[in-house]
Amino acid sequence: MNEESKHQESSPEPAGRTDRRVRADAQRSVDALLDAAKAVFATSGVDAPVREIAEKAGVGIGTVYRHFPQRSDLVAAVFRQEVDACAQAAAVLAAEHEPGEALARWMQRYADFIATKRGLASALHSGDPTFDSLPAYFQQRLHPALRTLIDGAAAVGAARGDIDADDLLSAVARLCMSANDDKPDHARRMVALLVDGLRYGATSSKDGK
Amino acid sequence: MNEESKHQESSPEPAGRTDRRVRADAQRSVDALLDAAKAVFATSGVDAPVREIAEKAGVGIGTVYRHFPQRSDLVAAVFRQEVDACAQAAAVLAAEHEPGEALARWMQRYADFIATKRGLASALHSGDPTFDSLPAYFQQRLHPALRTLIDGAAAVGAARGDIDADDLLSAVARLCMSANDDKPDHARRMVALLVDGLRYGATSSKDGK
DNA sequence: ATATAAAACGGAATGTCGTTCCGCTTTACC
DNA sequence: GGTAAAGCGGAACGACATTCCGTTTTATAT
Fold it and tell me: What is the rounded distance in angstroms from the CA atom of residue A26 to the CA atom of residue A53?
């Protein structure tokens, strides 16, 4: 169940008869908007004015609302984009590191994502219908990524494999949302503890039980 | 321009009542505002316009801001008021029911409070300094109420007494904030389960296990 | 290459909101 | 009753999200 990238780098392939779909300038605007919004949200929070994002992206206000009918649509799009990046990171880490290390690094990557998005929890509980589909999207995108990493690590005996990916994802999310006010690295250590737990239960042999 | 006249000089009133403190019309305005805000927040959410509250209370906008310098001060005041009511309910329930029943009913009362205040979690995580003191106030007000109920129930063998009140309060809060979208009575049943757990561990006699 | 219609653009205009300001009214105390 | 402080109401202000529409750009047909 994969889905082609909706807004990736513009590839000038002339294939297809009716290319009436996406105009080049529109694609440029959307990309610039997403980049600008990500940067502005990171510095000024998700409550930053739309005008500030439009200015940083070098487009007019009207252009923002052409592509994102509501403010919340932009916010949701950025969240989705970051989740995509997080999911993609799984493949990259799996290619660059041995399975156990890849799993550990990805868990921290995911934890960082949750911890830095302070406005995420508020958005999900805001009642805005725009965000209703986000939880399902997150799980749909993150579950396979983590599942693959766990299986990979379990195959070489670097971690136990009998763990539900969703359980892990929600557990980490809860850990990172709780005590972020007191100690900045509290979440990091708790996640590391979780990963160590995965390693502890590893089975060296093929036979799981 | 800061508040300086809150506290008068050192004890200028020996026995007589100094009426220079609160003017009658001001008290009326504050009461009407609090009532109106509670009603409006319940129906339209905590993001309801200040003007709507002012109109419902029958006062002008200026009057709102005289007593609540910021919107968030009004929100916090309503939260505090509801927590007070919840804490007071403990004494009422203790007087009207036997200890075990009082404890059980109060837990549901508290659960209802948390579950219906959808904007509470968002407010606490909003970063607005106005809400910084709320968690401490909640605990300070609720802890003694629950502690008394637990002790009362434990004294007649209706519940175990070796439970930390804060643990219970935070556990119930978490339960009521999680799965409120799926099933409306999920929280209620989970809280009932918790209460049953308290009853299960009750000691009818003095034997310490 | 030029024409053309659709798509996209920019930004002024609109409406809502929080908050401030200030002249007028009420209250409490003498 | 006199008076001064406290309280009141609401117009005014600035920030924001969102809409509207005349102008410009793009993709395709000619």
Answer: 16
Subset of residues 53-72 in chain B with CB less than 7 angstroms from any atom in strand D: 58-63, 65-67
Integer Cα distance of B178 and A158 in angstroms: 33
Looking at residue B81, its amino acid is: Q
Shortest CA distance from A46: residue in chain B: B126
Per residue in A78-120, pLDDT (tens digit) is 999 999 999 999 999 999 999 999 999 999 999 999 988 878 8
Q: Estimate the crossing angle of helix B134-155 against helix B99-116, to 10 degrees.
A: 160
In whole angstroms, what is the distance from residue B85 CA to residue B80 CA? 9
Distance from CA of B6 to the nearest CA of A (A): 32
Domains in chain B with CATH codes = 21-69 (1.10.10.60), 73-200 (1.10.357.10)
| A69 CB below 7 A from strand D atoms | yes
When pLDDT is averaged across residues B171-199 and rounded to a whole number, the result is: 79
CB contact under 8 A, A118 and B127: yes
Residue with tokens 């509250």: B53
Nucleotide nearest B22, CA–C1', reads D6
Residue B178 has a pLDDT of 63
Integer Cα distance of A129 and A69 in angstroms: 13
